[in-house]
Write a structure and sequence with these properties.
Strand content: 5-15%
Oligomer: single chain
Bound molecules: ligand V47
Radius of gyration: 19 Å
Number of domains: 1
Largest sheet: 4 strands, mixed
Number of strands: 11
């Protein structure tokens, strides 16, 4: 058996070079077998999901990321920019239902201020007092703090006092400023993204991390991305889940980059499970990768399927993902787990089990 494989099975941490070699040379079945062993050591036979809904307040965005199919300029026909009352009306639709999480993300609106976002979080908290609020990517938070001329830790503390409980993993893309210059030139730097998450973790605000892959980046870039996440997690322990996001090419300026195959999606999931030995959960985000790949990913390192969604997000359908109205019932999510011989568990936003099915 190869040295790297022995290390992995012995539960030893692999190096960046070993990770790169896996990306370059390891075949799907060997990666899958190793990732599944690690996944079962960490999460047993469990597949986690939650009852969640997204609120996307606006797709008006000051950034011009080349991979984005979602952003519009103010006043363009397909733009939207919900007022606070309209956002509260969306939240109101879920009052008294069984959802446990609201995930709020949108474009970086050129004028909305930190006060506006504080009112947003406070209002949603009033309407949905028992629902976990996971809101705003590091990019949104960075811009809010900049506009308010506050350190990001202070902006986060203010939002936390209004009811913000965790932050989602978006905006990470590839944590390399050379790649960022090519695909998201106006976005926060790699260090800036990490700084926001570090500040959140220091205040007890847990977060997720994503990686948008399969465009202009190399395997070296992916490894460095993972290395920076693993290093931060060693220091703070604040990441709950890692979510690899395959780039979708429809309706954006990076279409020429193509899209990776399902085999590469599964290889990537497995390598991430093997390398990120300190991030407890790996999410197969089905509105993006589709239900079939998400179900397969459960045997390649993933243990989490996000949630019921209730047709509340547009980011992926606008970029060409198959599911134009992403929505699943608890029964459907459970059935997907069971078909793969796993045990479905409803969780809360911090991965505490609510109910085993
Ligand atoms: O940061 C944008 C990605 C992300 C495209 O934390 C694209 O639980 C593929 O972060 N093709 C936002 N991806 C979504 C996100 C997320 C989603 C689900 C759960 C969680 C969580 C976080 O979507 C962006 C960007 O990386 N994205 N455009 C595209 N064309």
């Amino acid at each position: 058996m190869k040295t790297t494989h022995k290390k992995i099975l012995a539960g030893e941490r692999i190096t960046a070079d070993e990770c790169l070699a896996l990306y370059r040379t390891a075949a799907l079945p060997e990666l899958g077998a190793m990732a599944n062993i690690l996944r079962e050591r960490l999460n047993g036979k469990y597949v986690y999901f939650n009852r969640n809904v997204h609120i996307e307040p606006t797709n008006v965005c000051a950034n011009r990321c080349l991979f984005c199919s979602y952003r519009r300029d103010e006043g363009q026909p397909e733009s939207w920019d919900l007022s606070l009352d309209e956002i509260f009306a969306v939240a109101q639709q879920y009052a008294g239902t069984d959802i446990t999480e609201v995930h709020i993300v949108g474009g970086v609106h050129p004028r909305h201020t930190l006060d506006f976002y504080e009112e947003m979080v406070s209002g949603v908290r009033r309407i949905l007092p028992n629902v976990h609020i996971k809101a705003f990517t590091a990019e949104e938070l960075w811009q809010m703090a900049q506009r308010a001329q506050l350190p990001v830790a202070d902006a986060l503390a203010r939002l936390k006092s209004c009811g913000l409980q965790s932050i989602p993993g978006g905006g990470a893309e590839i944590l390399d400023d050379g790649v960022r210059a090519q695909i998201c030139p106006t976005k926060v730097s790699a260090q800036g993204w990490l700084e926001v998450h570090r500040r959140a973790h220091e205040q007890g605000v847990a977060s997720n991390a994503t990686m948008l892959y399969g465009h202009v980046e190399t395997y070296e870039h992916r490894v460095r991305h993972l290395q920076q996440l693993r290093d931060l997690q060693d220091k703070t322990g604040g990441f709950n889940a890692f979510i690899p996001l395959k780039f979708f090419k429809k309706n954006n300026s990076l279409s020429g980059a193509g899209e990776v195959s399902a085999v590469e999606e599964l290889r990537n999931m497995a390598v991430c499970r093997i390398f990120l030995d300190n991030i407890p959960h790996l999410k197969a985000y089905w509105p993006m990768c589709g239900k079939a790949v998400a179900q397969l990913a459960l045997s390649f390192g993933a243990d989490d399927m996000d949630g019921t969604i209730d047709d509340s997000t547009k980011i992926y359908s606008m970029a060409g993902a198959d599911d134009k109205s992403p929505k699943m019932t608890v029964d459907e999510l459970c059935e997907m787990a069971r078909q793969s011989r796993f045990i479905p568990v409803e969780r809360d936003s911090l991965y505490r089990p609510i109910k085993q099915y």
